[in-house]
């Protein structure tokens, strides 16, 4: 297991280099002239152009630029925006908010999704099962911004239960509703995945063996059916963390959350390459680490997967 | 318990154990008695407590019957922990003893391993260890050796036989292999289309089979006794196919395949009844007495058909 983990960590290196290089090259390549529109209506002054060319190594070819960027990154230097703000300080304020939001969403989708899946999967056809199937279908068919705007309008504006604009350093409670909105689609998938997986496993021979051993129904379901059924669910949840962070932009917009979504959005509009690349690089890292954790968890949940 | 594939052997065993999938399974009639106690309709909790403790079951495919994500030790120890209230440590020690009992080498080590790490024969031994854990009075073995190769089959049968003897335990062996039954069974029930069609002790069954289906089965394997059969006689499978249990023929369910079928067989269902006074010999055939009287010198089914 130790060696497997090490090998997986090493495998992350080329993936990391490849993805970040592509992002770097794409963002700088967005327009032919990196200074277009940078200085309002006027042409940029030669002095400004000289400073920026120096700051972003624009005279080098793209590969060298990237390598220089990477070198700085390894020392923790994310570079500066065109206006001279340290990207790392932008990230330091925005990232924790989005991570918190994504984790709340993940928690909600895991807890509610799995519980709903278990209840409908174990009970079998009936009212609860139909309720879960219909409500998840409902959530799946609604775009996230609709769910978000409706909840904001109803809970925030009409009922006044939640604040329509989330404060700068949001608490867990502040993020509950946005987290629900962000996680709602995946929550529906988790519920259905858990349900299907349980129903499939219920007919498995080893479940019959567990019953034949005279174990209680609770133990048969909770120990013998659940663990096997949760393997695909855990995989889904792990890979979903990265997707949630990347997809947080809409939810953040709806609830005025100052996370990376708005930062990236503004960065792209203003062609502020350093910001965009910095944020995406971190997203890639989150994604890769989450995947690694899933793979390791997989080995813990299913001993047939052997990593040596 | 003997019968072709699909004749309802497993369903019957599961009904006895109370582990029939319901739905789709449904029990419409009949009776299962264990030590005089009627089990059909008994309190589900009562039935659960009987499982493992009084009656246990092992299955044909040990690989799928064992939970792939828990160690074999965990799965055996589970019964000691949750039925006997033992601590995890004591239970695991007992699990290792059970593995040792069924002669799995290196039991202390292997108790931590997972089902996929065992060979087919060893896995079936694990199943047996698990079934014997709570020292049941009755063990139902549903085709325990079908998935194994011949030498391993013999070892598993020996192990079952030995444990049965040592524990004074009842063994219901389900098989479609007449050879296996002949060696171990005291009494044999032959099943056809979901019902028992003949039931008696092994010697009587071999000497005087009362049901044409039983005869057919015997003609389809090499004779174990030298008394009757012609040496080197060709093997004759029972002609035709077993019926789908969703469309059982009316009258005698065997009549479409029976060489002796008469009009009455198509119209009237022959119930299982005593056919030989004093031999506890039951059969479900209108002409059972005739076949019993013919004894071992019966003509083969096939000869009757072609003649
Ligand atoms: N008493 C019954 N009434 C109605 N249907 C039955 C009955 N017994 C068996 N069946 C049907 O026949 C199917 C096969 O039965 P079962 O699995 O018990 O056969 P088997 O004798 O164990 O066959 P195999 O040798 O292949 O294991 C069952 O799935 C069930 O649908
Ligand atoms: S009742 Fe008739 S059809 Fe059925 S087994 Fe006997 S002879 Fe054959
Ligand atoms: Mg069977």
UniProtKB/TrEMBL annotation, chain B:
It is a peripheral membrane protein. Keywords: ATP-binding, Cell membrane, Membrane, Nucleotide-binding, Transport. One of its GO terms (molecular function) is ATP hydrolysis activity. One of its GO terms (biological process) is peptide transport. PROSITE patterns: ABC_TRANSPORTER_1, ABC_TRANSPORTER_2. One of its GO terms (cellular component) is plasma membrane. Its main location: membrane. InterPro entries: AAA+_ATPase, ABC_Ni/Peptide_Import, ABC_transporter-like_ATP-bd, ABC_transporter-like_CS, Oligopep_ABC_C, P-loop_NTPase. The keyword Transport applies. The keyword Hydrolase does not apply. This is Oligopeptide transport ATP-binding protein OppD. The lineage of its organism: Bacteria, Bacillati, Actinomycetota, Actinomycetes, Pseudonocardiales.
């Amino acid at each position: 297991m130790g060696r497997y983990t090490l090998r997986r960590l090493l495998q992350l290196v080329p993936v990391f280099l490849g993805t970040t290089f592509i992002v770097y090259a794409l963002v700088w390549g967005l327009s032919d002239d990196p200074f277009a529109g940078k200085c309002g209506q006027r042409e940029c002054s030669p002095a400004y152009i000289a400073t920026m060319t120096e700051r972003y190594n624009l005279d080098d070819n793209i590969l060298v630029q990237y390598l220089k960027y990477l070198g700085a990154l390894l020392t923790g230097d994310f570079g500066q925006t065109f206006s001279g703000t340290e990207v790392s300080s932008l990230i330091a304020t925005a990232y924790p908010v989005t991570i918190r939001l994504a984790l709340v969403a993940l928690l909600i989708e895991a807890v509610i999704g799995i519980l709903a899946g278990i209840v409908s999967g174990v009970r079998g056809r009936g009212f609860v099962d139909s309720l879960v199937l219909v409500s998840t279908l409902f959530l799946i068919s609604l775009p996230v911004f609709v769910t978000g705007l409706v909840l904001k309008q109803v809970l925030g504006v009409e009922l006044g239960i939640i604040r329509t604009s989330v404060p700068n350093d949001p608490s867990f409670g502040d993020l509950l509703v946005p987290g629900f909105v962000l996680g709602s689609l995946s929550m529906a998938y988790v519920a259905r995945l858990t349900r299907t997986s349980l129903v499939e496993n219920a007919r498995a021979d080893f479940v019959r063996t567990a019953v034949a051993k005279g174990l209680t129904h609770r133990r048969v379901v909770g120990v013998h059916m659940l663990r096997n059924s949760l393997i695909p669910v855990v995989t889904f949840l792990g890979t979903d963390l990265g997707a949630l962070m990347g997809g947080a932009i809409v939810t953040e917009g709806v609830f005025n959350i100052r996370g990376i979504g708005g930062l990236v959005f503004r960065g792209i509009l203003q062609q502020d390459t350093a910001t965009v690349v910095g944020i995406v690089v971190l997203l890639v890292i989150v994604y890769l680490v989450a995947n690694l954790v899933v793979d390791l968890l997989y080995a813990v949940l299913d001993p047939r997967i052997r990593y040596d | 318990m003997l019968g072709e594939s699909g004749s309802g052997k497993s369903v019957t065993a599961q009904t006895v154990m109370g582990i029939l999938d319901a739905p789709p399974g449904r029990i419409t009639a009949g009776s299962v008695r264990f030590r005089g106690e009627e089990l059909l309709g008994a309190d589900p909790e009562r039935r659960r407590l009987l499982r493992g403790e009084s009656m246990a079951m092992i299955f044909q495919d040990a690989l799928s019957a064992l939970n792939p994500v828990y160690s074999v030790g965990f799965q055996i120890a589970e019964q000691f922990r949750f039925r006997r209230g033992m601590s995890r440590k004591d239970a695991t020690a007992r699990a290792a003893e059970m593995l040792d009992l069924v002669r799995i080498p290196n039991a202390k080590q292997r108790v931590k391993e997972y089902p996929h790490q065992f060979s087919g024969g060893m896995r079936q031994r694990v199943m047996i260890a698990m079934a014997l854990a709570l020292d049941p009075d009755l063990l139902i073995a549903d085709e325990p050796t079908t998935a194994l190769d011949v030498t391993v089959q013999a070892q598993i049968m020996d192990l079952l036989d030995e444990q049965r003897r040592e524990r004074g335990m009842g063994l219901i062996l389900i098989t479609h292999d007449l050879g296996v039954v002949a060696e171990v069974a005291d009494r044999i029930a032959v099943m056809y289309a979901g019902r028992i069609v003949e039931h008696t002790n092994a010697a009587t069954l071999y000497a005087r089979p009362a049901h044409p289906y039983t005869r057919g089965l015997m003609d389809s394997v090499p004779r174990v006794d030298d008394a009757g059969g012609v040496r080197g006689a060709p093997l004759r499978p029972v002609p035709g196919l077993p019926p789908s249990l969703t469309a059982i023929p009316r009258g005698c369910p065997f009549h479409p395949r029976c060489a002796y079928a008469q009009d009455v067989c198509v119209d009237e269902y022959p119930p299982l009844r005593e056919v030989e006074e004093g031999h506890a010999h039951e059969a479900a055939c209108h002409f059972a007495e005739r076949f019993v009287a013919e004894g071992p010198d019966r003509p083969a089914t096939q000869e009757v058909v072609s003649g």
